[in-house]
Design brief:
Blueprint lengths: L11 E2 L1 H8 L3 H9 L17 E2 H11 L16
Antiparallel strand pairs: 1-2
Helix pairs in contact: 1-2
């Protein structure tokens, strides 16, 4: 099993910062948070600031990762 090291400057960020870093609009980030594609920290009170959980997002990405298939000498995938 291979190991992957991931380093964060912070484990959480606001939707504004996330949108800027990823290069998508704040509206898109809000929509993705609302439909569950971007995990946030649980809110304890209504109206509390939304904070994106970058650690959970990275874990989801790692869980979905599939290594590339080996390629043959001509750049084609090898037949199984």
């Amino acid at each position: 099993m291979k190991q992957l090291n991931v380093t964060f400057d912070t484990p959480i960020c606001t939707p504004d910062v996330f949108a800027e870093r990823v290069g998508i609009s704040k509206c898109t980030v809000d929509r993705m948070v609302k439909d569950g594609r971007i995990p946030i920290l649980p809110k304890k009170i209504q109206g509390e600031r939304t904070l994106i959980n970058l650690m959970a997002l990275s874990q989801s990405a790692l869980d979905l990762y599939q290594p590339p298939k080996p390629r043959g000498p001509r750049g084609r995938s090898k037949a199984a």
